[in-house]
Amino acid sequence: MRYLLPLLFIGLVELGGCKGPSDPPDEPGPLTTVYRIRSGQHYADQEGLSFTSKTSLSFSVTFDSSAIYTSKIPENQHDINKLYGFSDCGAHHQTASARFGWNWRDNALRIYAYCYRNGERVSQELGTVALNQPTDYKISIVSDNYVFTFKGKETIITRGCNTVQSTNRYRLYPYFGGDEPAPHDITISITER
User: Fold this and answer.
1) Spatial distance between the Cα atoms of 62 and 188, rounded to a whole number of angstroms
2) What confidence tens digit (pLDDT) does each residue in 33-89 have?
């Protein structure tokens, strides 16, 4: 229900012939945002609707010790929390999207490629990151594929559409869960380039 409003907005922008928010030209430099997911919540405080026509997102992320958690239900420790990415194909993100995900499991912060392709969830573990160390990430749309770049290694996941140019993509921000909300405040620092 929460994402029906962005889709409604997309439709109004398309029908109204006016432009919605877009990427500002010649930004003064990378902007760092500290996202906070509060205890008992799923969504980050700083979440907002932001459209992008980019076919690639490059960013750096720093996790601190707040990324260490234990789920109340042990099997939920395998749930993938969402990090950053975008919707795709002019559709709702649970139909078509690409983003990185993460979880704390087996004493390590694990990173994933996390997509929806025609409503089907697809994920692949990519590796681990150290706490308090900035790490670079990149998601690119290349024809019919998403290319995830993490620690210099590319992972390709097939998209559900072949439309490359679109102004109907919206950014997807940090989200905790799965089934359980954040067990304590979680802070994630993201610098988009």
Assistant:
1) 6
2) 999 999 999 999 976 789 988 899 999 999 999 999 999 999 999 999 999 999 999
For residue 2, the 8-state DSSP code is: T
Cα separation, 41 vs 45, in Å, equals 9
CA distance 161 to 143: 9
H or E element that contains 11: helix 4-16
pTM of the model: 0.83
User: What is the spatial distance between Cα 67 and Cα 187, in angstroms, rounded to a whole number?
Assistant: 7
Domains of the chain: 4-24+31-192 (2.60.120)
Beta strands 81-87 and 96-105 are antiparallel
Q: Is the dihedral of CA 6, 9, 10, 11 positive or negative?
A: positive
